[in-house]
Design brief:
Blueprint: E1 6-8, H1 11-19, E2 24-26, E3 33-37, H2 41-51, E4 60-62, H3 67-72, H4 78-87, E5 92-97, H5 104-107, E6 112-116, H6 121-128, E7 134-135, H7 150-157, E8 163-165, E9 177-182, E10 185-190, H8 196-203, E11 207-208, E12 231-234, H9 237-243, E13 249-253, E14 266-268, H10 275-291, E15 296-300, H11 306-318
Parallel strand pairs: 1-8, 2-8, 4-6, 5-9, 10-11, 12-15, 13-14, 13-15
Antiparallel strand pairs: 2-3, 3-7, 4-7, 5-6, 9-10
Helix pairs in contact: 10-11
Bound molecules: adenosine monophosphate (AMP) and magnesium ion.
């Protein structure tokens, strides 16, 4: 089916499409999502096919209020309750044992369900008007850079969906932090907008899941979030620029321009003392660079602290060199 995709701010129109088992792009504070009624198998199928997402990669469920967690999950442990109290609404996704009412297609047959209560006025308003939660992975083709504006969604998903609900540029700009539990310990499965230090301030020591064989989330796949242009993540910009002399280079950097490349081929993402702003700008800058026809995009690695660590994680997976 080919749609004449519209973009707008009409929450009731978005509801209209969702109620008739179509899919709609929605804004959240992390990235734009491609949303479907979790109880509609035809709608869930449309999400997988529009994204070309393998059926083995489960979807995050977005809810209108915390009560839904108890409808969808079997066992909400004490640590989970603490994390829910402290970080919801917000960019935290929590993995809990699923109840049977959730179609297996949403969780790819896995025993857990991933749940998130977004903090975005338009997403919250829409969710409150629906009788069902929304399964919503990022609104981009599988493996490509996530969208942080309605225009990014249109560029990638135009024609495949009827409606894009425009909520402006996503505030956080990178995906949610995904956590789960293993024998009473909190495990971070995907680094994201909420930092390890923030989690540890609430539940004590957390474990970073480093078992790459144990891929429970596509955000953990080695290659993901990638532009089509080759991307190099490096600490040493000077060496990288020398290495690619003669190539058309785009540079993503922080704090100040490099003197070694014309300014018009560089984007400053922000200052390293404000890494949240860098996260906010990251994907839009990657979209711009990817469209500009460079031979290579070089990105400066951030200090591995706080959100910098989450940004490095994304850039590592996006890099192909
Ligand atoms: P995306 O929204 O495209 O960033 O992808 C959603 C993320 O949540 C992926 O990394 C999923 O694997 C993860 N996720 C969703 N549901 C589950 C689940 N049931 N078990 C484990 N991870 C999940
Ligand atoms: Mg994604």
């Amino acid at each position: 089916m080919i749609f004449n995709t519209e973009t707008g701010t009409d929450i009731l129109l978005a509801k209209h499409y969702l109620d008739k088992e179509d899919i709609v792009a929605i804004p959240t504070e992390t990235v734009y999502g491609l949303a479907a009624n979790i109880f509609s198998e035809p709608a869930i199928k449309k999400v997988y096919s529009a994204k070309k997402r393998p059926a083995t990669n489960p979807l995050i469920i977005h809810i209108a209020n915390k009560e839904w967690i108890y409808e969808l999950a079997e066992d909400v442990n004490e640590q989970a309750k603490l994390l829910i109290d402290n970080f919801m609404p917000g960019p935290l996704t929590i993995l809990l044992p699923k109840k049977k009412l959730i179609p297996d297609m949403v969780t790819s047959g896995l025993p857990n369900v991933a749940i998130r209560l977004p903090a975005h006025p338009i997403a919250n308003n829409l969710l409150k008007q629906l009788d069902y939660p929304l399964a919503a992975p990022s609104a981009n083709p599988f493996g490509y850079i996530s969208p942080t504006t309605a225009q990014h969604v249109y560029d990638q998903m135009g024609g495949k969906i009827p409606y894009i609900l425009d909520g402006g540029k996503c505030k956080a700009g990178i995906e949610s932090t995904i956590i789960g539990f293993k024998e009473h310990e909190t495990v971070v499965y995907r680094l994201g907008s909420i930092t390890i230090a923030e989690l540890e301030a609430v539940v004590g020591k957390v474990i970073l899941n480093s078992n790459t064989k144990d891929i429970v989330a596509p955000g953990m796949l080695k290659k993901h979030y990638s532009p089509r242009t080759p991307l190099l993540l490096t600490q040493n910009i000077e060496d990288a620029l020398t290495q690619y002399t003669g190539k058309k280079i785009g540079l993503l950097t922080y704090d100040s321009y490099s003197q070694l490349l014309p300014y018009e081929h560089q984007i400053i993402l922000g200052e390293t003392k404000n890494m949240s702003l860098i996260a906010h700008n990251l994907y839009s800058a990657m979209h711009i660079m990817d469209a500009a026809g460079y031979d290579i995009i070089i990105v400066k690695r951030l200090p591995d602290e706080g959100i910098g660590r989450s940004i490095n994680d994304r850039l590592n997976r996006a890099s192909s060199l």
